[in-house]
Design brief:
With 209 residues, the protein is an alpha+beta fold. It is built from 3 helices and 10 strands. The protein has an 8-stranded antiparallel barrel. About 8% of the residues have low confidence.
């Protein structure tokens, strides 16, 4: 009897040990599965993050492309406006006033390099010296660019540059062998000539409004 009880106790102990081992094994498997599940979730999160990051980078690139395109359009527009402005400037005449004895006389200047430099000095009042009973002249303080030609005939009212700094206003028509850079012409010649008179005269040059 005692041997049977001992055997029964040993069998129970073995069964208990096996049960405990099974229980522990199942718990470990459960933990392993949970960890694996967490790793899957983390991997998914990483993939989602990478996807979002790629989208952000694409949006940034798209934004840069749009901005670059806008800058290019603006640059092209400004270039066209500048070119158009230059073309208009080259085609348009320059309106100025010559003031003698508080009387204003309009004049039209050509639009060239010389006149553009000249009007940068405006407004200016010059004491114009008399010469040969046909012109008034003044040597400017600054030299101007020149494009000389030989007109052969000077017309009353012509405004010209002799050399690179002598501004001349003619009030008679005559033939000449000299070369000048043409600047423009006084519009109302007869009234202007009558106001100039003989001798030196102060003439104020300014842009017309």
């Amino acid at each position: 009897m005692k041997n049977k009880k001992l055997v029964l106790i040993l069998v129970l102990i073995v069964i208990l040990v096996i049960a405990i081992a099974v229980f522990i094994t199942k718990n470990q498997e459960t933990k392993v599965n949970e960890i694996a599940s967490e790793n899957v979730i983390d991997t998914t999160n990483i993939e989602d993050f990478n996807t979002i990051d790629n989208e952000v980078q694409n949006n940034i690139q798209t934004s840069d492309d749009v901005e670059n395109s806008a800058d290019e359009i603006q640059t092209n527009t400004q270039t066209e406006e500048t070119n158009n402005g230059s073309d208009n400037m080259n085609n348009e005449e320059i309106r100025v006033n010559l003031i003698v004895n508080n009387k204003t006389f309009s004049a039209t200047l050509e639009n060239n390099e010389t006149t553009r430099k000249l009007i940068e000095m405006f407004p200016m009042t010059l004491n114009m010296s008399e010469m040969n009973s046909n012109e008034k002249y003044n040597y400017l303080d600054s030299n101007l660019p020149t494009n000389t030609t030989s007109p052969r005939t000077i017309n009353a009212g012509d405004i010209k540059l002799y050399g690179n700094n002598c501004l001349v206003v003619f009030y008679k028509t005559f033939s000449t062998p000299y070369s000048y850079t043409n600047l423009g012409k006084v519009d109302n010649v007869n009234d202007f000539i009558n106001e100039l008179g003989r001798g030196n005269v102060n003439i104020r040059f300014e842009l017309a409004e």
